[in-house]
Amino acid sequence: MAKYSTGDSTGGGDAGSCELCGASSGSLKTASIAGATLKVCASCAPHDDAEKKRDGQSKESDRKKRAARKVAELQDAQGGDSSRWEREGTNYADDPLPYLVSGYGDRFREARQDAGLQIHELAESLDVPEEQLMAVEQGRAARAGVGGSLIADIESDLGIELAE
Question: Are 135 and 78 in contact (CB under 8 A)?
Fold first, then answer.
């Protein structure tokens, strides 16, 4: 019998050829593979979609479980206690972050380098933690809780515009 046939050339019984690989076998099993019901040999039986689902080996179900786990992790991170995301001492009501120009991190880095300053030197002169200046340079000022007063200090110290 040809590979991938949907008929049974043996006229009944379990003896015959595997409809998936064509191998002769005295014992064939009925399997559902990619939506087709086939008589398959023991070597091809692991391809049975029903067996994969029973064994928990379904790639699609594993993918769905991983995706659901990731969504749950993201929801946990977004909800609950936000204090881990906020920096102490930043008061958003008194020191709001202004709208920053596009590419403000690159603009800041170029101005700092043109002035011949390292991050730690500028941090000392502005009396702020290096991490806050690094956040500005990397374009993540809002996520790091950088205040508007720091942006204003950087602008006046380096003679650049970072805020719109």
Answer: no
| Matching residue, tokens 């003679």 | 159
Cα dihedral sign, 88-99-160-133:
positive
Question: Residues 79-87: contacts with CB within 8 Å, 24+ apart?
Answer: 85/143, 85/145, 86/145, 87/132, 87/144, 87/145
Q: Sign of torsion, CA 99 101 106 107?
A: negative
CB atoms within 10 A of CB 18: 22
Residue 38 token pair: 């086939």
Contact 9, 16 (CB under 8 A): yes
Kindly report, residue by residue over 98-140, the tens digit of the pLDDT.
Answer: 788 889 999 999 999 999 999 999 999 999 999 999 999 999 9
pLDDT confidence of 75, banded at 50, 70, 90?
low
What are the φ/ψ torsions at residue 22 (nearest 5 degrees)?
90, 0
Whole-prediction pTM value? 0.44
Q: What is the residue whose two structure tokens read 């011949």? A: 116
Whether the pLDDT of residue 153 is over 70: the answer is yes
40 contacts 47 by C-beta, under 8 angstroms: yes
Half-sphere CA count of 154, side-chain side, radius 13 A: 32
